[in-house]
Inverse folding.
């Protein structure tokens, strides 16, 4: 089977040219997909249709020749232009900058699927494979796609489940019944699980501040989290709240500041550093509960990415941001649902690495975070504006029943 | 009684001094068949007389040695005599002939129109289109003029899009399927705002539907009638000058109030052309007229 794209313009509706072309395709035993149609607004304006025709190799050629008689021409599809990278970490000038949508590259007349869609990368062709490569990982001699010839990107597809699509239809939902949204997020998690897909959680410190830590830990223990991304703050406050019962010095139980509590998180970081790693601190019995402990005990991988304002940081925090992003990429294969929980910077960083096909739910009390995520190109994200602690509690109950 | 055609009172014709069947580019042409030059000339002059008697003016383009088909002026190009305020007589889109034998005609046609001040507009080089032979306007009563364009044997479907953009009018495509009816003007003859002589045997099923939707009262020819070239007629007001008049067709035209004038052009049928092929209307107005011109 082969697919070719044809284009026809003009008064293709009044002249019944479009139905004629589609009939011709079907009568020849081929199939079509209309990729794009624009209808002229008046009867003088031309209309235009772009049609992908699929059929057996020996049938397709003659059909396309037939269609040419009706003015439908193969769209010119040149091969992608490949230019070797001159230096490590530097893309050739004019490099094709990727999107997070699935796509294909034409090389030697064949369309190669882009294996790991990620936005803002270079596109490198290695033999018969096409992969996105972040700028810093390009090696001298890598064959990099330059310009946009020979690259095609699929339109964002609708999720199969129409109900979900409807509810994904509005980007930010601050005015929808939260219970309903939580139930549907739970449905998506279950659906991903059934398909064998991985669930990624990106968590910010507010998860702990709002009392959501124990519920998230419960989700980890029950196997609802396959990988977790966070920063120094989340891990620190998660451990602080379990070791000292405070989050940033405020009692998680009572909500009141504790004396000398402002330094609590520093003491905790210091102790974990003494143990050498979070896993070692868990093993030694220093960390007795919480999300980080659950991750260690369940063997669920996590990536803690550092930032310039981190205290300590914890020994597990990767302070080289480029290395941290690479570590996150290592865990993205197979992820089908991403839950961004009250995290602005880590959510955007993760969104930048995710293919558009990953269902992404961004939960934050601040609508701007969700908007920002979409503005940075993660259009697949659905925002849920609510208190993250309450959200996690309801989600955990929805998934596992009340404890 | 329907309104008469808004065009068809001024024609360009070319005397058959150098006419003959010198090559074969349609199923009617046989180089072994000789054309009687005197008879051809006499038939052509009778056609001129008939058109003038019906009230049309005829302008003459000189014939050229080596271009026998220059006599078929309908194929010279597409004329749009809509005033554009420039003082020019109008626009002329010269044909791009499919067969190399006829391609040298284009320079002669352009020369004739350019010298008379017509604005010459060209189709893209790679597209074939044989002028009024494959494109006839139909103006439905109270509606907007539509250019009906035939394609497959002599013209490209894609040329219709280019024509539409060039001329700013809707173009409807009809695929021609009978090589004996190789030009649209052998299958389609607009009579007025409601009627046209049509030969659906020359069209594919989509083309039939396109014309069905456009022409409220078609005079539908049988295949045999169509092959008599009776659709290749010239309409001057209420007069229809026909190369052949099947009885049924003549009666219907008369019943509709047309005067039928039969004008035999048998010498030209040897080359596959009838009355219409020998004429190019110079007063076709394709564009909606600018305000104030009405």
């Amino acid at each position: 089977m082969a697919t070719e794209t044809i284009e026809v313009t003009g008064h293709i509706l009044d002249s019944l040219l479009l139905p004629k072309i589609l009939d011709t395709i079907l009568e020849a035993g081929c199939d079509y997909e209309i990729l794009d149609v624009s209808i002229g607004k008046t009867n003088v304006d031309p209309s235009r249709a772009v049609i992908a025709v699929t059929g057996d190799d020996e049938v397709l050629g003659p059909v396309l020749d037939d269609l040419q008689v009706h003015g439908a021409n193969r769209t010119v599809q040149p091969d992608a232009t490949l230019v070797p990278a001159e230096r490590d970490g530097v893309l050739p000038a004019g490099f094709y900058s990727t999107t997070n949508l699935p796509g294909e590259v034409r090389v030697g007349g064949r369309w190669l699927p882009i294996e790991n869609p990620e936005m803002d990368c270079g596109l490198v062709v290695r033999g018969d494979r096409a992969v996105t490569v972040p700028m810093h990982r390009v090696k001298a001699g890598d064959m990099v796609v330059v310009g946009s010839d020979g690259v095609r990107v699929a339109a964002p597809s609708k999720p199969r489940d129409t109900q979900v699509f409807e509810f994904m239809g509005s980007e930010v939902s601050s005015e929808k019944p939260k219970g309903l949204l939580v139930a549907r997020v739970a449905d998506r998690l279950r659906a991903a699980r059934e398909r064998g897909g991985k669930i990624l959680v990106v968590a910010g410190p507010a998860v702990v501040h709002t009392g959501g830590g124990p519920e998230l830990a419960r989700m980890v223990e029950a196997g609802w989290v396959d990988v977790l991304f966070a920063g120094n703050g989340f891990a620190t406050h998660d451990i602080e709240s379990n070791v000292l019962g405070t989050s940033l010095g405020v009692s998680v139980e009572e909500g009141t500041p504790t004396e000398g509590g402002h330094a609590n998180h520093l003491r905790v970081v210091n102790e974990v550093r003494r143990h050498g790693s979070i896993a070692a601190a868990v093993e030694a019995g220093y960390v007795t509960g919480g999300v980080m402990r659950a991750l260690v005990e369940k063997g669920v991988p996590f990536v803690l990415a550092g930032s310039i304002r981190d205290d300590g940081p914890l020994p597990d925090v990767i302070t080289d941001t480029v290395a941290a992003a690479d570590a996150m990429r290592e865990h993205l294969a197979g992820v089908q649902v991403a839950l961004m929980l009250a995290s602005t910077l880590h959510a955007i960083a993760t969104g930048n690495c995710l293919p558009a096909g990953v269902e992404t739910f961004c939960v934050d009390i601040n609508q701007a975070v969700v908007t920002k995520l979409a503005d940075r190109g993660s259009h697949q994200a659905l925002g849920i504006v609510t208190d993250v602690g309450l959200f996690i509690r309801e989600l955990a109950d929805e998934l596992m029943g009340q404890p | 009684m329907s309104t008469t055609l808004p065009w068809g009172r001024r024609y360009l014709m070319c005397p058959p001094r150098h006419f003959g069947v010198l090559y074969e580019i349609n199923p009617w042409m046989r180089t072994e068949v000789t054309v009687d030059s005197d008879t051809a000339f006499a038939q052509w002059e009778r056609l001129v007389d008939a058109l003038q008697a019906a009230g049309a003016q005829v302008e003459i383009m000189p014939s050229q040695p080596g271009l026998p088909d220059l006599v078929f002026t309908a194929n010279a190009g597409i004329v749009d005599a809509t005033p554009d305020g420039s003082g020019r007589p109008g626009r002329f889109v010269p044909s791009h002939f499919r067969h190399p034998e006829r391609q040298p005609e284009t320079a002669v046609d352009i020369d004739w129109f350019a010298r008379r001040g017509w604005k010459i507009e060209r189709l893209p080089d790679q597209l074939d289109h044989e002028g009024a032979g494959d494109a006839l306007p139909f103006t439905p009563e109270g509606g907007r003029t539509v250019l009906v364009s035939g394609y497959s044997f002599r013209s490209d479907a894609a040329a219709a899009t280019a024509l539409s953009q060039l001329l700013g009018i809707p173009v409807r495509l009809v695929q021609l399927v009978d090589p004996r009816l190789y030009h649209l003007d052998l299958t389609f003859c607009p009579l007025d705002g409601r009627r046209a002589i049509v030969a659906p045997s020359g069209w594919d099923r989509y083309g039939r539907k396109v014309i069905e939707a456009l022409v409220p009262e078609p005079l539908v020819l049988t295949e045999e009638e169509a092959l008599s070239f009776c659709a290749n007629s010239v309409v001057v007001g209420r007069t229809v000058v026909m190369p052949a008049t099947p009885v049924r067709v003549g009666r219907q035209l008369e019943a509709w109030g047309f005067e039928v004038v039969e004008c035999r052009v048998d010498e030209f049928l040897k080359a596959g052309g009838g009355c219409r092929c020998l004429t190019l209307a110079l007063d076709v107005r394709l564009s909606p007229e600018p305000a104030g011109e009405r």
